Amino acid sequence: MDNMTMNQQRETDEKSSVANVDFRMVTFTLAGRDYAIDIMKVKEISKDNKFTYVPNAAPFVVGVYNLRGDIISVIDLRIFFNQLNMGLDKSSSNQENMIILRLEDHTIAVIVDTIDKVVGIPSESIQPPHPLFGDINVKYISGIVESDKKLYVILDVEKIFNSDDTEVPEQSSIPVQIEDFAVVTQPGPMQAEAESNDDQLNVQFIAESLATFQKMYVSAVNREWVEERYKTWIQARKTAGKDVQFADEQDALSFVEGFNSPYSGSLWNEDYIQILEKILPDPMNRTFYALDAGCGSGYETYSLASIIKKKSPQTLLKILAYDNDLMAISTAPSLMLEKFQVPEYYHDLLTESVSGRWQFEEAIKNSIIFEYHDIMHHTNLPALDMVVIRDLLSLLRPEAQLHVLNLIVDNLKPGGIIIVGKNEELDENLGFTEKVIDGFIYYQKK
Amino acid sequence: MRVEYINPFVEAAFNIMQEVLQEDVVRKELYLKKTSQPVMGVAALVGLAGDVEGRVLIDMSKESAIGIASAMNGEKLSEIDELVKATITELANMVTGQAVTKLHDLGFKFDLTPPSIITGDNMQVTDLNVEALIVPLSVPQGLVEINVAIRERI
After folding, report:
1. DSSP class of residue A354?
2. Quick check: A266 pLDDT over 50?
C-alpha cells in the first residue's frame, strides 16, 4: 500500500517535470566545454567552409557567407571569446560548424567547435550566472543549467551581438561589493582589549588622513600593508615623543614611505628582470597585448617592452601605456637616457641620438603607445595578455579602484597575467589565482 | 590620446591664432574631458581619419566668434552671418591643416573632412567611447577651446 502511493507519487513527479519543459536550447562545445543558446534565437544549423574574407574586419569575423541569397556575417566564437581549441589543430579542409542565429534586427552565423543536440529543460532550473564560470564574460551569460549530468552555460546572444551600442551602464562583473571593498577597517564589534580597539580606531584615522592628503586610499588592496606599517609607525612615533596621528602632509608622506614597489619610476634591474622572464609565457609567435597603467615617464614601460622583446623576438608586441600626468608622460615617447646609468641588460637595445644621449631603438619604441589618458574615462582595450599596474590602485579612490579592476577583469584573457604593487594584493573573489615565484607575487586570471 | 599627437595640435592652434589675430594669445592648462561636454555657441567641426579616427572641434562663444571674424577680416561685424561662418571655417581649416602637417612630419597619416559650422544655444557634444583633450586659448576676443577627440585603431 505504502509502495503504491510512493510509486504514484514518483510518477506524478516525473510527469510534472516533463510537463515543465518550457525552454529548449541548442547545445554546443567550445574548447571542450558545454554551452547553449536559446532555440528561439536559432534559425538553423549549417556546415560550410566557404566564407568570403572581409579585409580589415575584426579578427573574430571570419567573413561573410551566402545563405541562399542572404549575405550574413560569420563570427568565430572561439576567437571572440578567446577560447582557442589548443589541442585540436584542424586542417583547413574541414567544414566548420555554424549556428545561424536570428536576432532582433539581423541574422548572423557563429562558428563553434561541435554542435551537440537540443536539450529541453524547465526554465526554473536555470540558475543565474556565477562569475566563477567566467571563461566568458559574465555579462554575456544568461544562466547556467544542469541537464543529464552536464553543466551548460547559456549564452545571451542578443547581448553579445547587440548592434546598437547604447552603453548599458556597466554592471560590475565582480562579486565584491564596494562596501566590503572600500575604506577603512571597521572597529570590531566585540574588542576584548581596549588597546587593540584603540589601534583599530587609530588605523581608521590614519586611513582617513591619508585620503585627505591624497597619498593613498586604503582598501582591500593595501589594507594589510597599512596595518603592518601602523605597528612600526606607532613605535617610532612613541620613541620620538610625537602623536600617532599626522600633524601635516610631511607625516603622511613619511608614513607611506616604503610602500612603493622596487624600481618605481626607473628601469628595472637584473633581479627583477629574471623574475619577469620566468613569469612571461614561453617564446610566442603571435600578438601580445600588454597594459601599463600609470606609466609615468615610461621607464618601467620600456623595461617591460625590452624583457618581452628579448624573450620572444618573434612576437608582435603592443603595450598600451597610460598616465594622466601630462608633464610626466610627455617625455616618454622619446625618453633620453645616460648610458652609464642604464643596466647592462638594456645596452644592446639602445641607440645613440644626435645629442650624444641614448634612446631605446625604434623596434622597442614602436611597440609602445603612450597615451595621455584618464583611466576613469572610457578606455578602449583589446584582449590583454598582461597588465602591469604597480602602486596605481592605492592612489585611486576605492570606487575608482573597483572600476579599474573591473576594466582589467573584462579585458584580460584567461590565463593573462596581472602584476600589482609589491605591497598590494588582489581579493581572491576577483577571479585571479595568486602565484609566487622566488618570493615575487603575481596574479593570473582563471 | 596618444602623447605624440598633443603637441602638434597645441602648437598649431597657438601659432595660427597668434598669426591671424596679431595679438597676445595665452595658453592655459590642458586637460581631459569625459564624453559629453557643453559647446559654447559656435563650433567648427573637422573630422579626422587615417591611422586614427576622431574629430577636432574649435569652440567659442558667439561674441568671441564675431570678434575674431572682425579681426581677421579687418572690419566690424555685428552678427553671425555668412562671412563670420566662412571665417571661422577657414580658421578651423588652418588650425587642423597645420596640425596634420606637423603630424605627417612625425610619421602619422591623417585625412581631414571639410569643416562644418554648428551654431546654437545650449548645445552638447558627445563622442561615445572617446575622451577629449581640451586646449584652452585665451585671446582678447574671449576664450577659444580646441577640443580634440581621437582614438587609435588598435
Report:
1. T
2. yes
What ipTM does the predicted assembly reach?
Answer: 0.82
Pick the CATH number of B3-152 from 3.40.50.1820, 3.40.50.300, 3.30.450.80, 3.40.1550.10: 3.40.1550.10
Taking residues A1-30, report their average pLDDT.
64
Rounded to the nearest angstrom, the minimum Cα separation between A112 and chain B is: 26
Chain centre to alpha carbon of residue A184: 25
- pLDDT, tens digit, for every residue of A60-83? 888 888 888 888 889 888 887 777
pLDDT digits (tens, 9 = 90+) for B33-90: 876 778 888 999 999 988 788 899 999 999 999 999 999 999 999 989 999 999 999 9
Question: For chain B, which residues make up each domain, given as ranges?
Answer: 3-152
Residue ranges of chain B whose CB lies within 8 Å of a chain A CB: 1-4, 6-7, 30, 32, 34-35, 128-131, 133, 151-152, 154
Q: How many CB atoms lie within 10 A of CB A136?
A: 21
The Cβ-side half-sphere exposure at B89, using a 13 Å CA radius, reads 14
Q: Are A307 and A271 in contact (CB under 8 A)?
A: no
Distance (Å) from the alpha carbon of A104 to chain B's nearest alpha carbon: 23
pLDDT, tens digit (0-9, with 9 covering 90-100), for A131-179: 665 555 667 788 888 888 888 888 888 877 775 444 333 444 455 555 5
Cell digits of residue B153: 585603431
CB A39 within 8 A of CB A25: yes
Query: d(Cα A79, Cα A85) in Å, to the nearest integer?
Result: 9
Would the pLDDT of A426 be above 90? no
Strand blocks (E) in B76-141: 110-112, 116-119, 123-126, 132-139
Sign of the alpha-carbon dihedral angle for A70, A71, A76, A81: negative
Enumerate domains of chain A plus CATH numbers. 15-161 (2.40.50.180), 178-255 (no CATH), 270-445 (3.40.50.150)
Taking alpha carbons only, the member of A85, A104, A107, A83 closest to residue A94 is A85
Interface list for chain A against chain B, based on CB atoms closer than 8 Å: 165, 167, 318, 320, 324, 326, 329-330, 332-333, 369-374, 377-378, 380-382
- The segment with the largest mean pLDDT, out of A56-70, A81-95, B112-126, is B112-126
Q: At what angle do helices A194-212 and A223-240 cross, to 10 degrees?
A: 100
DSSP designation for A52? B
User: Do A329 and B3 count as a contact with CB atoms less than 8 A apart?
Assistant: yes
The three-state secondary structure class of A353 is coil
Chain B residues with CB-CB distance to A165 below 8 A: 128-129
What is the per-residue pLDDT for A446?
81
| Chain-chain contact of A372 with B6 (C-beta, under 8 angstroms) | yes
